[in-house]
């Protein structure tokens, strides 16, 4: 694959507002579909550059597609998981996945755990929300004043969490199944977070 920096990826989950999606597409250099995500591109009038999946329920039209990958139906990975392995390259700065959440709860949870493999790089986005994984270190994020932010550990305990510019700031906190930050509020147009150990899921209500 040629060197690229930004990819739009369409998964098989629900998309409520195709008009909003159309406003986002121009920022991406490549469009990738995963299995039923092909149908989203059809509705948007887009021809994807790369098509991936096991296609156990339908057969996509691939005559205009640059790259096509058919996965086996019986496998030890999800279609989205394998698609990410195919498209990943060190120069990438932004992978935005539409349709990653919703439908089956087990698929949604699986996809959320996948975020931890690509912290800050992979984002699940809709008109209503954005979800990313934040790794160890100090990070700054743009936001809107009064925007709702949630910080949630997935799996292992996350230690030494400190935030600034949130209504309920954390100070060297340990976050686990017994302590999370749900529906926090941005007080300014940016906020910072430092994590000493672990990876946090960050949910932005947009």
Question: What does this protein look like?
Answer:
- By secondary structure, this protein is of the alpha/beta class.
- The chain contains 4 helices and 14 strands.
- Strands 4-3-2-1-5-6-7-14-9-12 form a 10-stranded mixed beta sheet.
- Strand 2 (30-34), helix 2 and strand 3 (50-53) form a beta-alpha-beta unit.
- The protein starts with 5 loop residues before the first strand and ends with a strand.
The tally of strands reads: 14
Element pattern in H and E: EHEHEEHEHEEEEEEEEE
Sheet of most strands: 10 strands, mixed
Helix count equals 4
Global structural class: alpha/beta
Low-confidence stretches: none
Would you tell me the overall average pLDDT?
94
Strand order of the largest sheet: 4-3-2-1-5-6-7-14-9-12
First and last CA, distance = 33 Å
What sort of overall outline do the alpha carbons produce when their principal axes are compared? globular
Radius of gyration: 18 Å
| Fraction of residues in helix | 10-25%
- Beta-strand residue fraction: 25-35%
Keywords:
alpha/beta, 17% helix, single chain, ten-stranded mixed sheet, 206 residues
